[in-house]
Specification:
This protein has 239 residues and is of the alpha/beta class. It has a single domain, classed as Rossmann fold (3-Layer(aba) Sandwich). The strands form two sheets. The protein has a six-stranded mixed beta sheet with strand order 6-7-8-3-9-10, with helices on both faces. A four-stranded antiparallel beta sheet has the order 2-1-4-5, covered by helices on one side.
Length: 239
Amino acid sequence: MAEPLLTLERVTAGYGSALVLHDVSLTVPENGSLALLGRNGVGKSTLLMTIMGYTQLRDGRLTWRGRDISHLPPHARATSGIGWVAQEREIFPSLTVEENLTVASRPGAWDLAAVYKLFPRLNERSRNLGNQLSGGEQQMLAIARALMTNPALILLDEPFEGLAPVIVDELTDAIKAMLADRRVAIILVEQHTDIALELTTEAVVLERGAVAHRAPSAELQNDLATLDRLVGLRVAAGE
């Protein structure tokens, strides 16, 4: 059996003296897709930040392609192949779209031509500054910039938050194409449960910082009782 891409083994982590995650275990295979679900405040974003190395690990370990990265600094995790698209997007407002894309680029299949094909709007706005883009365009730029690092895994933290339904549709199509054509794995945190489960093959639900449920995404999508009990929201974007 092939080595998993990412493994978390009984991870307990948080900020300072405050523990947020408790005994969390999960795996993501090469080219896999995992939805990370749960109500607000259960630790979903903290889990992504823990994978990136921005929290204090109190117990457990993280392995990346079999290598222990539990105490690896964030920049080393990024250069190892983990990309992160934060909720705040964190694009550079005073750089052009193209400069935002090339500033952190690394060699690989994802180059300017590839990301412009995935996001034609960015090609049209390539000379515009980051602060001249709409919210949806900024989200496209944040995802495209992460792709330009040519990661094996991208962490997506609520990429559809606050966006119009037409933009959500564009981003959904782009993520589907990204998964199908470029073989990058994703962990997706998303409040729009229907979309998250549609885009992924596996799902984990957190409750109070611990894993409360795990199942194939298609199975969980039809398990309305579990979704109502643990997530409480089953609406799609724009509804």
